Amino acid sequence: MSTTSADVALHAGVSRATVSQVLNGHSNRFTPETAARVLRAAEELGYQPSTAGRMLRSGLSDFVIALVPNTTFGSNLQDIFGTVTDMLSLQGLTLVLRLSTDSPSSLDAVLGGMRPRAVLSLQPFTDVERQVLADRGVPGFDGSVEGAVNLNFVVGRLQAEHLIERGFRQLAFAHLRDARQDPFGDDREAGVIAASTDAGLQPPAVIGFGVDLDSAGDALSSLQAGVGVACYNDDLAITLLNAATARHWRVPNDLGIIGMDNTPLAHVTAPRLTTVSYDLAAVARATTTAALSALGQELPPENADINLRVIPGGST
Description:
Blueprint: H1 5-12, H2 16-23, H3 32-45, H4 51-58, E1 63-68, H5 76-90, E2 94-99, H6 104-114, E3 118-121, H7 127-136, E4 140-141, H8 151-165, E5 170-176, H9 185-198, E6 205-209, H10 213-221, E7 227-231, H11 234-246, E8 255-258, E9 275-277, H12 280-294, E10 309-311
Parallel strand pairs: 1-2, 1-3, 3-4, 5-6, 5-7, 7-8
Antiparallel strand pairs: 9-10
């Protein structure tokens, strides 16, 4: 049986009204001793205030909605949202995951029904999403800061620079082409183009395919032997690696391949996939810290370095 505010009041020797006011941030209306007694009683009894009650009083819930992008993050999503869940929980907030959709009315309905404190997104909000958030008065955080470094551009440049260091003088960039989104592909392609230009190479070829051998094989047919391919992510890189094997291309002699995300499957390919890694927890902390700070929660400073780096493998 769960503990009620009446139990806390009885344990602390005060009225339920006093318990309600103290636990809702109005301790200044009582003596420090009374407020401390209420808080101690609530802690000793393991009292959890009613979310529904707080919603009625404040007009806001304790929910923070995270939009899960319709893209390929694999097992990394669990690591990212696990960190976000823990950080929010320490601040008395509850994470709710919601799949992103193309329907602004669907997002509007969720915001109206749940009345969340904030909405987090791992990819930039669309203009329509920003308008829905503004209309509802709900703050949104997608990690974008005006003037900040474009990390996806850096990812593409890092991939290309590694391929160039390994001796590849012709490069290509592979976009994801299927029902899921490729929200970071254009910026990563731009990074590959910039690195190629700086190295005096010809502009990279641009290909696109889905996570299936047929479309990867078709894309491979458009390339010449000796090319180094920077792939949108590890899913594409592993698909291209298998398509190359099926067509008897030698990796890395005929084809260099580098992925992105350092997923578990990247470690079990033959040859082992070269990929780009980053600190998932740091990415989650950065976005969540920005949201909590804007909501008035003071947090200790965190190391913002996401440790973006190449994990060398046999595919380059």
